[in-house]
Design goal:
six-stranded antiparallel sheet; about 5% helix; mainly beta; Jelly Rolls; 13 strands; globular; single chain; five-stranded antiparallel sheet
């Protein structure tokens, strides 16, 4: 597995090896020993899967008290995935990075995104539909659930909206401004 550093400390792009022939292909997308060898978590407690239509924007979500690390993979479609560093002691505090994720890259490689605890996370669907699967290091904790507004002016995230208004949930539309957010 190839592990690629990104512009934000501790966020990694993971590229598992894919083996194929005329019958199809196979990939080992999680192996505890290999993850441990490169400093990634090996204990995941929940898998979440969503299907969303074009223009749906989910996030920016995080949890207080029981933060979740997320291993994100797109099974179908194309998303713009965004992570915001909420770790007050991090040199990247308040910075964000965006990643275009698809089931495979243009060169046919599988790609996943590791977002550790202490980050807010969200994504925008760019294809007609997208199916996203992510593993978490902590269970969903409703009492600690928080959201920062996707269009927060301080964060100034350049979502690739191409002139459309995103479809957001009522809860996400009521998200807190970054400067007012209760952070970990």
């Amino acid at each position: 597995m190839q592990v690629i550093d990104t512009a934000l400390r501790d966020i990694k792009i993971l590229r598992p090896r894919r083996f194929g022939d005329d019958r199809g292909w196979f990939a080992e997308v999680f192996n505890a020993e290999k993850f441990a060898a490169v400093g990634l978590p090996t204990h995941f407690v929940q898998d979440n899967q969503s299907v969303s239509a074009k223009g749906v924007l989910r996030g920016l979500h995080y949890q207080l008290g029981k933060p979740q690390g997320k291993l994100v993979r797109v099974l179908a479609g194309h998303i713009c995935d965004v992570a915001v560093d909420l770790r007050r002691d991090s040199p990247d505090f308040g910075r964000h990075a965006a990643f275009h994720l698809r089931p495979r890259t243009d060169t046919g490689e599988l790609e996943m995104l590791w977002i550790p605890e202490g980050f807010a996370h969200g994504f925008l669907v760019l294809s007609e539909t997208a199916e996203v699967l992510y593993k978490t290091t902590a269970l969903y904790y409703p009492a600690g659930e928080r959201a920062i507004r996707w269009d927060d002016p301080t964060l100034n995230i350049a979502w690739p909206l191409n002139g459309i208004a995103p479809a957001v949930s009522h809860k996400d539309a009521q998200g807190t401004a970054f400067l007012d957010a209760e952070l970990p």
